[in-house]
Amino acid sequence: MRLLSMKTERGNLAGIIMGEEVLDVTGFCEIIEGRGEWVEADNDTATYHHIEGAYQDALDLVKHGPNWPARIIAKLEGDSILANQCREDGVLVPLAKASLNPPVLAPGKILAVGLNYAAHAAEQNAQQPETPLIFSKCTTALVGPGDAIRLPRISEKIDYEAELAVVIGKEAKSVTAASAYDFIAGYTIMNDVTARDLQRRERQWARAKGLDTFAPCGPWLVTKDEIADPHSLALELRLNGVVRQSSTTSDLIFKIPQLIEFISQDLTLRPGDIISTGTPSGVGVYSDPPVFLRDGDQIEITISSIGALVNSVIGYES
Amino acid sequence: MRLLSMKTERGNLAGIIMGEEVLDVTGFCEIIEGRGEWVEADNDTATYHHIEGAYQDALDLVKHGPNWPARIIAKLEGDSILANQCREDGVLVPLAKASLNPPVLAPGKILAVGLNYAAHAAEQNAQQPETPLIFSKCTTALVGPGDAIRLPRISEKIDYEAELAVVIGKEAKSVTAASAYDFIAGYTIMNDVTARDLQRRERQWARAKGLDTFAPCGPWLVTKDEIADPHSLALELRLNGVVRQSSTTSDLIFKIPQLIEFISQDLTLRPGDIISTGTPSGVGVYSDPPVFLRDGDQIEITISSIGALVNSVIGYES
Predict the structure, then answer these.
(1) Does A203 reach chain B within 8 Å, measured CB to CB?
(2) What is the widest separation between alpha-carbon atoms in chain A?
(3) Of A182, B149, B182, B308, which is most buried, counting CB atoms within 10 Å of its CB?
(4) Do residues B228 and B156 make contact, with C-beta atoms less than 8 angstroms apart?
């Protein structure tokens, strides 16, 4: 399933993609409740859930377990009258008209991995690390699909980094690689935007990687059941239509289960936490000549089985 | 005022210190509401607030503005019958019996400053930085006063760092040093616990500074009105009763207004965010012989005008 968060007149609401449409799950639950078809949850059976407040993001849907969104989809696919009522009530809307947020609105933390593709290490004459190089990005840097990456005042060398991102679904501490998939909710795309001048100048990357709008994320969360092998995905970044990064996640040096085992040693990962797995070669700073982001640029990152994350770039004063 | 969060049978509740007692603000509001003395808020006058759910931490109280906790204190000080009712109802309890959380339960981010005392830079033969060295600590590392610092499996060189911490009270982006105090809620104490072996081995300090229990914080938030000059506070750390760090915040290389101006450039600080301002000399790793934390150790950090943060150390298997 593809789960997301969208901006609506009623605030941020969680959605499920159904073909070319997206279902506002809060609105759906209200309609079901109005029809008196409510079924309380039990331990084993996925059921419609009574809502207490709105579902805001993909994580709210993940928390109910995989059967719940699946059952909603099955219900709608088997009940065209209900589906049409949802359309009439503005609860099932064309995806193209929806304005999306990052799939998780407020993750507790974003951890990311440096030098995790051999070709990216090679392009900067860096050795491949013996253990994962872990750093964090400020959660205040998150923006959604279609949102602008705003060029900061304090840097002139802003670069892109296309990355596969993992969203944690269950609290994980000191878990083994063998069990790591149990703790994953699903996958999305992250652009690990980086100020190269700050990154060079400052020993720690908190600012170089953490400025506002430096973590575009989306367009949605693809639940793990839909991606049999996250290490066989094609990943591509286009800057103004020109391919700048093109690789496959099979080239990841440290695979996702290893990363979760490594990171979760003595460090608790919580539902909604994001691990961005690293970028392949082709970043702007090591291009010849170097390429940095400019006002008006458009960046599209596609990962197969997930989708496309598109963001424009605007100047500080825009 | 001294605002805090405490563990109670009703969950985490915000409290205000009154002499040797602490007031459960949620319980107080319920008593006031039950007496029919409710006053609705207006724009200018501080009033009792109708509660929708419990106040959980110091930030919940800060959000109502400085007049609100002050008015609650004044009300209780002038009404001994009400105060006694609060005591009878378990709403005003001895501070010594309260079990405290970190004053802000879930800050959006913890940013910290490296090498911000000249003597600490000198003890490691490091140059004083020309600009603040900013890094982040995982919010999952937070623990409260009295909570244990748990030695991790993956490090054998765990060290303490006593620090004055600033809690943000108002969203701050690209603010000037001259206006920086407007964005501060108050001050508390942070122990920037660090795995020295990981810090040496890994380029980024996300793990070395971010493992679980590596951010003891508290014992409470002292609102900024009580501290005329945060750069004149005596700071001391005792390990098992022996003074290991002893300095004053007047020795901070980058003062708090400069830090807020620097950090908030193109990076939004939100209410509850914590800035830990750096540690003075005397850390364990540069002691002769080096000292690292061991099972059973007790660490007490005192900062004048704030109080004492005490934590014990326990082994991984304890």
Answers:
(1) yes
(2) 64
(3) B149
(4) no
